[in-house]
Write a sequence for this structure.
């Protein structure tokens, strides 16, 4: 894994129609690149000028060492705004253990009262910041946890370097028990047992998103799309999506 420390020019990226997080005013990415290396990740579809080639996805990480400082500088933008943290990386990937940029950014943001803050992760490392998260108003902060399958064999195929299904269940439960709003992001919907997904998630999550793989043409393990071609057919995707949504609204 190549780790590159950089000084970013800005850290709050304005969102507009067509942006990755277009329901928010800003996205915030303290890292560029992502060590979790999900095979289906959409980020390589939108490389910025510093990014390496999409085929190297998962092999490099830029660390924006001045991210907390930039937040302080841009604090006027944060008051009353909505922020998606993060749209193009995982803010709690393992580099966070060394750099603590996400923690420092959150500590800054806490002073400047955003109207809405959504953290999005696959990682149990967020639990190390749980006391900090509890300081945000429950109506302001929610945590989206990516939960794409209940089957850890499938998880290993599509998300080889990301935390296990079991760790994510523990994470969702711990956030819920801490009084934090948890949104399950079943996106993309991977091969799974839908009844089991509902059983695992329903007691703990307040909302869920379900979506299919975007940009299959950049999937870096196309053989998996072939192996599970039946599950990825529009009819099965629609059927499973409707089932999960219905069970949650029941
Ligand atoms: S965790 Fe998110 S940003 Fe990282 S590789 Fe997976 S989908 Fe992409």
């Amino acid at each position: 894994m190549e780790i590159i420390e950089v000084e970013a020019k800005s850290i709050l990226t304005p969102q507009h129609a067509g942006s990755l997080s277009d329901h928010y005013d800003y996205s915030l990415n303290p890292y560029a690149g992502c060590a979790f290396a999900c095979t289906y990740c959409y980020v390589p579809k939108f490389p910025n000028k510093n990014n390496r080639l999409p085929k190297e996805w998962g092999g490099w990480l830029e660390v924006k060492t001045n991210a907390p400082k930039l937040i302080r500088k841009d604090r006027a933008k944060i008051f009353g705004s909505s922020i998606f943290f993060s749209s193009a990386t995982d803010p709690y990937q393992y580099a966070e253990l060394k750099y603590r940029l996400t923690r420092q950014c959150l500590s800054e943001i806490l002073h400047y009262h955003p109207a809405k803050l959504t953290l999005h992760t696959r990682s149990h490392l967020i639990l190390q910041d749980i006391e900090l998260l509890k300081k945000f108003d429950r109506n302001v902060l929610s945590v989206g946890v990516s939960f794409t399958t209940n089957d850890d064999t499938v998880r290993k195929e599509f998300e080889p370097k990301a935390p296990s299904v079991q760790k994510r269940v523990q994470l969702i439960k711990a956030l819920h028990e801490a009084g934090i709003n948890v949104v399950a992001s079943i996106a993309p919907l991977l091969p799974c047992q839908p009844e089991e997904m509902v059983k695992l998630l329903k007691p703990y999550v307040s909302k869920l998103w379900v979506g299919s793989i975007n940009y299959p043409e950049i999937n870096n393990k196309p053989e998996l799309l072939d192996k599970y071609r039946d599950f990825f057919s529009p009819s099965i995707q629609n059927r499973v999506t409707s089932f999960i949504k219905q069970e949650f609204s029941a």
Observations:
- The chain has a mean pLDDT of 94.
- Residues 2-249 form a domain with the TIM Barrel fold (CATH 3.20.20).
- DSSP finds ten helices and ten strands in the chain.
